[in-house]
């Protein structure tokens, strides 16, 4: 982007002004036309001809793909374990609760993309900007702490989950080649490093607007591994019958399970389910990829409804069928619970889909972090040439600051993942921390402020009751997950994670 374009964009965002030249939206950015062209010039060093690929973007369908890519992630892998801790009735009820709340607050949040008017107001290109425009600077700072903390946590969780799935692929092939009694254990650390190297390359994609092809691929992968897990569950049930299940999950006394340990596990499971529905913290960023006609809030409401409905349907099938297949012995990652033997290729394929999906989901989660870091640096050192300078290599735009900053971030997150590779407790804690502030509190408070809901009115009281109830749910889930994480840390040796 040239300096002139950057200045125009900055003026448009801060003052709501733009040049009506037919090429730019009212925020100074190029119009979201709904078309994105990916091409390769004749200088591309490929043994085949890469033809021009035209992709329709900027529509609610692609926003749905972004949502599905973000929502159906590593959270789906732990749902059968959650059902085992909670049982049929609490498990199904909890999943439906988070589904309804996520849809309700997401619909409220879509109206905060423009302010003060949800259709004709000024664009807010990020979640944090929407909070600042509607609730003020103090709430903006709190939102920044919550959003950045959660996004950082999720990128760490994705690194751990990808290593587990990559290890599962290796073990499936190893057992097939060397027999069921072979020693096929593998260290997770080299796998995390491989994942980090790929993410460093992908992180050079400038922003959300360039991620649509990656998002579509990732969404397809999420469907594939979720469907594979469902098919394997059905096959296991057909072959071995329904596992030992109950209405309230693993009974107290089973394998020495105490009432206190049962409670901690249930609380951790609630956090896991909350994590499975986490995406509100990037909803505004996804909405910013939509073209302005029809109005973005109208398109985003449709995208959120479709995306959450599809995700909930898959979640319910994965949780119910996974619990039915494994019973109270359901593993933390239900794809690895099917063993690494026959059909080894199907288990390996499912885990490969997890890896590909998380490669894309990592970028969708990390983009707000990258954008925040780079915008802060531009404001802090406005004349610094390393920060401002962009280079062109053929059709690619290159930034030295982007390369250094984003590479450093990926490396640091990978090191932390090596130190704390605890899947269930970690995602539970992230989910608990994400759910209330970013998925409930800020969307509801922005809606109240934007539409001037009278204090102590019926609508105001109902919205505040939802806020309080969800806060209590998040608090107890966070306590349970923290306790499990502390327990795991006391028995784990850093950098020695093995699958």
From TrEMBL:
<keyword id="KW-0812">Transmembrane</keyword>
<feature type="domain" description="Amino acid transporter transmembrane">
    <location>
        <begin position="56"/>
        <end position="485"/>
    </location>
</feature>
<feature type="transmembrane region" description="Helical">
    <location>
        <begin position="190"/>
        <end position="209"/>
    </location>
</feature>
<keyword id="KW-0813">Transport</keyword>
<dbReference type="GO" id="GO:0016020">
    <property type="term" value="C:membrane"/>
</dbReference>
<dbReference type="Pfam" id="PF01490">
    <property type="entry name" value="Aa_trans"/>
</dbReference>
<dbReference type="GO" id="GO:0015171">
    <property type="term" value="F:amino acid transmembrane transporter activity"/>
</dbReference>
<feature type="transmembrane region" description="Helical">
    <location>
        <begin position="456"/>
        <end position="479"/>
    </location>
</feature>
<feature type="transmembrane region" description="Helical">
    <location>
        <begin position="88"/>
        <end position="109"/>
    </location>
</feature>
<feature type="transmembrane region" description="Helical">
    <location>
        <begin position="148"/>
        <end position="170"/>
    </location>
</feature>
<dbReference type="GO" id="GO:0003333">
    <property type="term" value="P:amino acid transmembrane transport"/>
</dbReference>
<feature type="transmembrane region" description="Helical">
    <location>
        <begin position="216"/>
        <end position="238"/>
    </location>
</feature>
<keyword id="KW-0472">Membrane</keyword>
<feature type="transmembrane region" description="Helical">
    <location>
        <begin position="344"/>
        <end position="370"/>
    </location>
</feature>
<keyword id="KW-0029">Amino-acid transport</keyword>
<keyword id="KW-1133">Transmembrane helix</keyword>
<feature type="transmembrane region" description="Helical">
    <location>
        <begin position="403"/>
        <end position="420"/>
    </location>
</feature>
<dbReference type="InterPro" id="IPR013057">
    <property type="entry name" value="AA_transpt_TM"/>
</dbReference>
<feature type="transmembrane region" description="Helical">
    <location>
        <begin position="426"/>
        <end position="444"/>
    </location>
</feature>
<feature type="transmembrane region" description="Helical">
    <location>
        <begin position="304"/>
        <end position="324"/>
    </location>
</feature>
<protein>
    <submittedName>
        <fullName>Amino acid transporter, transmembrane domain-containing protein</fullName>
    </submittedName>
</protein>
């Amino acid at each position: 982007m040239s300096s002139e374009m950057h200045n125009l964009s900055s003026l448009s965002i801060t003052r709501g002004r733009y040049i009506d030249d037919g090429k730019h939206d009212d925020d100074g950015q190029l119009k979201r036309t709904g078309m994105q062209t990916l091409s390769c010039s004749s200088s591309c060093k490929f043994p085949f001809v890469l033809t021009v690929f035209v992709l329709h973007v900027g529509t609610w369908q692609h926003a749905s793909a972004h949502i599905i890519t973000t929502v159906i992630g590593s959270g789906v892998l732990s749902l059968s374990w959650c059902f085992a801790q909670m049982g049929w009735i609490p498990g199904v009820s909890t999943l439906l609760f988070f589904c309804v709340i996520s849809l309700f607050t997401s619909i409220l949040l879509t109206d905060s993309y423009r302010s003060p008017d949800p259709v004709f107001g000024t664009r807010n290109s990020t979640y944090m900007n929407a909070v600042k425009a509607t609730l003020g600077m103090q709430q903006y700072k709190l939102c920044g702490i919550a959003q950045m903390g959660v996004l950082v946590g999720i990128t760490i969780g994705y690194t751990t989950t990808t290593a587990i799935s990559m290890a599962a692929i290796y073990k499936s092939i190893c057992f097939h080649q060397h027999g069921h009694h072979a020693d096929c254990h593998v260290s997770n650390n080299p796998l995390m490093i491989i994942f980090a190297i790929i993410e460093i390359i992908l992180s050079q994609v400038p922003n959300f607007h360039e991620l649509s092809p990656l998002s579509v691929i990732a969404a397809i992968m999420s469907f594939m591994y979720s469907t594979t897990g469902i098919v394997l569950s059905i096959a296991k049930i057909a072959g071995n019958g329904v596992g030992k299940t109950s209405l309230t999950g693993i009974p107290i006394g089973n394998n020495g399970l105490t009432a206190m340990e049962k409670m901690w596990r249930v609380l951790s499971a609630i956090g896991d389910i909350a994590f499975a529905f986490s995406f509100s913290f990037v909803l505004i960023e996804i909405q910013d990829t939509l073209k302005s006609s029809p109005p973005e809030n109208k398109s985003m409401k449709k995208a959120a409804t479709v995306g959450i409905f599809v995700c909930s349907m898959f979640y319910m099938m994965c949780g119910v069928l996974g619990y039915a297949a494994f019973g109270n012995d359901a593993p933390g990652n239900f794809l690895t619970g099917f063993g690494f033997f026959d059909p080894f290729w199907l288990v390996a394929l499912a885990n490969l889909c997890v890896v590909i999906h998380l490669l894309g989901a990592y970028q969708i989660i990390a983009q707000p972090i990258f954008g925040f870091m780079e915008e802060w640096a531009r404001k802090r050192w406005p004349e610094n040439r390393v920060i401002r300078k962009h280079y062109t290599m053929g059709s690619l735009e290159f930034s030295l600051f982007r390369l250094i900053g984003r590479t450093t971030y990926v490396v640091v997150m990978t090191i932390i993942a090596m130190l704390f590779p605890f899947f269930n407790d970690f995602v539970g804690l992230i989910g608990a921390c994400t759910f209330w502030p970013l998925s409930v509190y800020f969307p509801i408070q922005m809606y109240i402020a934007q539409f001037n809901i009278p204090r102590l009115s019926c609508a105001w009281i109902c919205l505040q009751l939802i806020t309080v109830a969800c806060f209590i749910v998040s608090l107890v889930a966070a306590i349970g997950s923290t306790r499990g994480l502390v327990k795991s840390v006391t028995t784990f040796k850093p950098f020695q994670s093995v699958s």
